[in-house]
């Protein structure tokens, strides 16, 4: 992630301002690899490390949870300049202020887990 500059705050801001295709290229490549890998797993009925078949289950229908979850995730990403993967890379680079962002992400995750059963999804 460091070599591709995916952890760079400036690259992330360029993406959100539609000033550069760099980050979209990284994410598009990841999506393409995921599509190809999923196709190959299904076609050849591959198994996991313990020998169990890898099964893909359909997700429940509905758009609200994806809309609201995406908005919250995107706002957090735009405000902090880091999504979950780069947050830990930045700690490794010595940017200790990102620990506050990681703490906020963990708090949000645990909060969601605590109220998940009460939400309308």
Q: Can you describe what's shown?
A:
The chain is 61% helix and 0% strand. It has 121 residues and is mainly α. It has 2 domains: 1-57, no CATH class; 60-121, no CATH class. Helix 4 runs antiparallel to helix 5 (98-115).
Are there runs of 5+ residues with pLDDT below 50, and where? none
Based on secondary structure, the structural category is mainly alpha
Terminal CA distance reads 34 Å
User: Count of DSSP helices?
Assistant: 5
Which geometry do the CA atoms define? globular
Mean pLDDT: 90
The proportion of residues in beta strands is: under 5%
Total individual domains: 2
According to DSSP, the number of beta strands is 0
Report helical residue fraction.
55-70%
Topology:
Elements: H1 9-16, H2 22-43, H3 64-80, H4 84-92, H5 98-115
Helix pairs in contact: 4-5
List keywords for this structure.
single chain; 121 residues; mainly alpha; 2 domains; 5 helices; 61% helix; globular
Nutshell version of this structure?
This protein has 121 residues and is an all-alpha fold.
